[in-house]
Each structure stands twice: as structure tokens, then as C-alpha cells.
Amino acid sequence: MQIAISPKVRKIILIILATALLAIGILALRPLFISQKETSETDSPADAQAAVSAVTAFYTLNYTEGNDLWTARVCAYGTEAGCRAIQNYFAPIVQAMVLDNQVQSGCIVTPIRLIADKGAIHIWQVSVSIDNPWSGLDAPVQDVYIEVEKVGNLWLMNRILFEQEVDQLINQEP
């Protein structure tokens, strides 16, 4: 007994088989085109990740957003004291600069090294590369020093260090 397959059904079966073979081929060749070890945030320790996240939020600026959105975004990565510093000191200065220069920028932040380990408080040096620099910016790539604190099970930003603090810190290093 012979089974007769109509030309339409045969065509559909061939298309399904060809698609399956193509998918298998793509999956088999994928490792040749994609790096085996892709870098991710989880490759860094939790304190470094906290520093990167907070600095990324700090340097992600958009003049079209409401004044409180930047502050809320940065405070999401901060301790209570860190958020108060953002609200009371940095927010007015940053918001005025963002509006005056109509800044819309993002950044790439990379941890460089742990500068100080004081138990639950760490200071990290990170590199910030701003993707859309504005006039008056000293350099589109700069190092930032950030203090993070372990609160419960989370590392959160206390503050970004001022230049004078960085100078003192670097001069104290052995």
C-alpha cells in the first residue's frame, strides 16, 4: 500500500524540515560568533556593582525630565544620608547645570579598584565615560571616587567624594 502525499503537503513538510535544519545549524555555529564568557555586572563584587549603579544614575542626565526624577533615580541607590546629600547639595547644582546646558547624556561606568575597605564602608574608584558631553565639562572620561556602605544585605551609595577628599585619600595611600 502506497501513501499519496499531495504536492502542497510535500512542500509544507520540506519547508518545516528546512527550517528545522537551519535552526539547528544556527545553534551549532552560534558559539563561533559569540564570546563564551560575556562580561556582566555579576562578575564584579556587590560593592563595586553598587558603586557603578549609583554613579550611572548620577551621570544619566536629561533636561526634559522633571526636577525630581533625577533625584529619585540617584536616591534609589543611596543610603538615607546619601539621599539627603543628593537632595540638599547636588540636586540644585546638577539641575541648574542640566537646564542651562540642555544636557541629555548617559554614561558607561567601569569599576577600577577598591581604594579603602573600612568594614561596612568601601570607597571605589570608577571610570565614567559620558556619551554626550556638554560644554563646560572638564573631560568626557573621568575618574570618580564613591563611598558605598553595606546596609543590611545591600551595598548603597553614601556619597561621591569631593576633589579635596580624593586628594587626601590618594596622598594617604601607601
Task: Give a verbal description of the structure.
This protein is of the alpha+beta class and 174 residues long. It has a single domain, classed as Roll (Nuclear Transport Factor 2, Chain: A). Helices cover 47% and strands 25% of the residues. It is built from five helices and six strands; from the N terminus they run ααβααβββββα. The protein has a four-stranded antiparallel sheet. A two-stranded antiparallel sheet has the order 1-2.
Q: What is this structure's SSE topology?
A:
Blueprint: H1 7-33, H2 46-59, E1 61-62, H3 67-75, H4 80-101, E2 104-105, E3 107-118, E4 121-130, E5 141-151, E6 154-160, H5 163-172
Antiparallel strand pairs: 1-2, 3-4, 4-5, 5-6
Throw out a few tags for this protein.
single chain, 174 residues, alpha+beta, Nuclear Transport Factor 2, Chain: A, four-stranded antiparallel β-sheet, two-stranded antiparallel sheet, 5 helices, 47% helix, elongated
CATH architecture: Roll
Q: From the helix content, strand content and strand pairing, which structural class follows?
A: alpha+beta
Largest sheet: 4 strands, antiparallel
At the third CATH level, what is the topology name?
A: Nuclear Transport Factor 2, Chain: A
Going across the major beta sheet, what is the strand order? 3-4-5-6
What Rg, in angstroms, do the CA atoms define?
25 Å
DSSP strand (E) fraction? 25-35%
Under CATH at level 1, the class stands as Alpha Beta
